[in-house]
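Work through what follows:
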Amino acid sequence: MQQQVALYINGEWCQASDGRTADVVNPATAKVIGKVPLASQADLDRALAAAEAGFKVWRKTSAYDRSKLLRKAAQLLRERADDVARLITLEQGKPLAEGKLETLTSADVIDWFAEEGRRAYGRVIPARMEGVRQIVTSEPIGPVAGFSPWNFPVSQAVRKIGGALGAGCSIIIKPPEETPSSCVELIRVFHDAGLPPGVLNMVFGVPAEISSYLVPSPIIRKVSFTGSVPVGKHLGALSAQHMKRSTMELGGHAPLIVFEDADPAAAAGVAAAMKFRNAGQVCVSPSRFFIHEKVYDSFVGRFTDIVKSLKVGDGLEPGTQMGPLANSRRVDAMERLVGDAVERGAKIATGGNRIGNQGYFFEPTVLTDVPPDARLLHEEPFGPVAPMLRFTNFDEVMTEANSLPFGLAAYAFTRSAKTANAVADGFESGMVSINHAGLALPETPFGGIKDSGYGSEGGIEGLDAYLVTKFVSHLGT
């Protein structure tokens, strides 16, 4: 059974002031397992006041002391990883092993920002006039409004929380209402580590109500959002209207290219693992597979064999390799995309159907001979469907890979250093991984271009997003 879910405002756990709640559903059973409180405007006002007061305290706390507290929170999260992972699986659906990996990686993210926050260096610029000192410093931007998604409820929230706290900012985080319990436990580790009241606040609620109230508030100085392109564009415009700096990590439709000199069997193993992780509900999941005609049959054959062997089931059951989709909307979307592709001439190599009538399960699916006008090749699928496409030459495949307005992640497999360099330079994407799954480490930047957003989380860029530059010119007397 789900644990009690609450808002966290000014260092205290509380329910919504007007008593509003929403159901939380287990996607493996489609049964209600709990309630999540929906913050009222009065609750948001309290959170804003708390964040404003918390910022005044936290920005004056030394980077050394901030680091110690964050490191303590990271350790607590590791100690509680098994419990947090179970909550992730219960509410989001991914296999328990994936939930635990997400939790442990999130602790690494906190550690990264704990240390990087101690290295927010400035510089001295040589002056043109004797007696003048020109100094550049980095300062925390101020209270932050962060919005995180349901597919990685802990790791996406922690990138915003870790970056903000590491830089010396306070933050109001709005995690997903669909998967609240693991987020509650994430906030609890900071509370138990001794974070001062108001520095970190958490609210759930009707998303449009929360964003339309927090973003325009003069207290909020920075907005960070992870989610869909349409919502990201709306929040980006709202942030710009109020001159708020923002980071937007939006959707993707990642190309994966297998060149003729690649090992097709090895590439298929890596590609299948990337594609069906979290049932394909990953913004950087490969979703357009371009396979050179010389290795097409061997790659697709091996890939399909792997997919057929995947054990689909409740993420809490031992041996499950792919869990349910997060909600009924995702199942409906898979049926529409697969149906449209088949109607236009695509062939189903395996899968293609929802599973059973309990929970939100859909077969891991491979489609071949997918026509270029299929919706699947233009809309982010965000699910366990892999379309296979043939290509014959480099220029052709790069044109196709870059043809969409998305630009988050891109992948390639090749044994040629020349080809690897060419695709690294040629991909119109914020992130590129060649011959392995090399994205989303705490120390590396994570972000996209074009409609996939702007700004980065992770790496030194993830800290810089919460800092502003101040220049001081001082003439001694």
Notes: The longest strand covers residues 132-140.
